[in-house]
């Protein structure tokens, strides 16, 4: 039986330019269009500097778009009011490439994972703690890790914390920006397997960014190749 799935995300002619001084403009993303169906993984590959991260960051609204549209579940992501934007940021999350730079070294694991829970007012007190333990176990860590700091963990464990942080607010869509590139080859597969298991369990939709095909082949339903700001 074939199941008709709808597009969760439609990216239409998306552009992101950076002003880099003296009137110079760097066209990091220059008219990119694609869609991703609910529960699907779209791989996005291309050499370093071609605009992959900028595309991902613009989709989740870490950047404002220069032009073009991102339609998520029927709403235009770049024309939301504050309240709608908050709702959107709960549904669209990002996992970053460098698990060393992307976790605040002064925050405990509980604070890192709990931040989104607090911002969105999801759980308080005992419920919040219980949820954090649950998330740690979900990503293959344990409650004993809750009060530790990022430097006490290996790269793979840190990326698991990054995954737990993204999952904490129950998103539908996650941009995985080279989530395994900085990890030892021996643990890359573990993190990919974790992401796949979580996708199945929660029906997540992924934009999975990588710099080479070998990484994304296994996890992606379709693959888009980016070169100098275009697909
Ligand atoms: N915040 C920024 N300000 C200015 N230029 C940027 C910024 N972020 C990225 N760029 C430039 O945009 C281009 C695309 O970068 P990026 O999206 O990080 O590529 P990728 O993720 O494919 O390696 C690069 O030339 C990069 O130097
Ligand atoms: Mg990048």
Automatic annotation (TrEMBL):
PANTHER family: D,D-DIPEPTIDE TRANSPORT ATP-BINDING PROTEIN DDPF-RELATED (PTHR43776:SF7), TRANSPORT ATP-BINDING PROTEIN (PTHR43776). This is Oligopeptide transport ATP-binding protein OppF. It comes from the Bacteria. Residues 9-231 form the ABC transporter domain. SMART domains: AAA (SM00382). GO terms for molecular function: ATP binding; ATP hydrolysis activity. Keywords: ATP-binding, Nucleotide-binding, Transport. It holds the Pfam family ABC_tran. One of its GO terms (biological process) is transmembrane transport. The lineage of its organism: Bacteria, Bacillati, Bacillota, Tissierellia, Tissierellales. Belongs to the ABC transporter superfamily. InterPro entries: AAA+_ATPase, ABC_transp_ATP-bind, ABC_transporter-like_ATP-bd, ABC_transporter-like_CS, P-loop_NTPase.
């Amino acid at each position: 039986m074939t199941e008709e799935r709808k597009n969760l995300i439609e990216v239409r002619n998306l552009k992101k330019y950076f002003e880099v001084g003296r009137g110079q403009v760097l066209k990091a993303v220059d008219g990119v269009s694609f869609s991703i169906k609910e529960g699907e993984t779209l791989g996005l590959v291309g050499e370093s500097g071609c605009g992959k991260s900028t595309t991902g960051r613009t989709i989740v609204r870490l950047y404002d778009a220069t032009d073009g549209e991102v339609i998520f579940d029927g709403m235009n992501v770049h024309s939301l009011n504050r309240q709608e934007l908050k709702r959107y940021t709960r549904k669209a999350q990002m996992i970053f490439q460098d698990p060393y730079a992307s976790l605040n070294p002064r925050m405990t694991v509980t604070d890192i994972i709990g931040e989104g829970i607090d911002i969105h007012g999801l759980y308080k007190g005992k419920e919040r703690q219980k949820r954090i333990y649950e998330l740690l176990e979900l990503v293959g860590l344990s409650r004993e890790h809750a009060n530790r700091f990022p430097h006490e963990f290996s790269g793979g464990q840190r990326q698991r914390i990054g995954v737990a942080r993204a999952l904490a607010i129950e998103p539908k869509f996650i941009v995985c920006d080279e989530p395994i590139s900085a990890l030892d080859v021996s643990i890359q597969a573990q993190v990919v397997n974790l992401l796949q298991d979580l996708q199945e369990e929660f029906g997540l939709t992924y934009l999975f960014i990588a710099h080479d095909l070998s990484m994304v082949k296994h996890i992606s339903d379709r693959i888009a190749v980016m070169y100098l700001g275009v697909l």
